[in-house]
Amino acid sequence: MSKVTAKFQITIPPHVRTQLGIVPGSDVDIRKEGDRYVLLVDPVAELKKNGGVNLKPGNLPMNT
Question: Which pTM does this prediction carry?
């Protein structure tokens, strides 16, 4: 369990950071889903930071 600091910050445990791919500067969001709050990592922002994938309209892989 993490404690909230005086600045309302928390430390995300190392095993959670690793599993979610969270690194310094990662974009995360906290959303309410029913009676719970869920931490979301923005995968699009992470791809852009790391060079990303260059997909153009019409060049998307297709499954048949």
Answer: 0.57
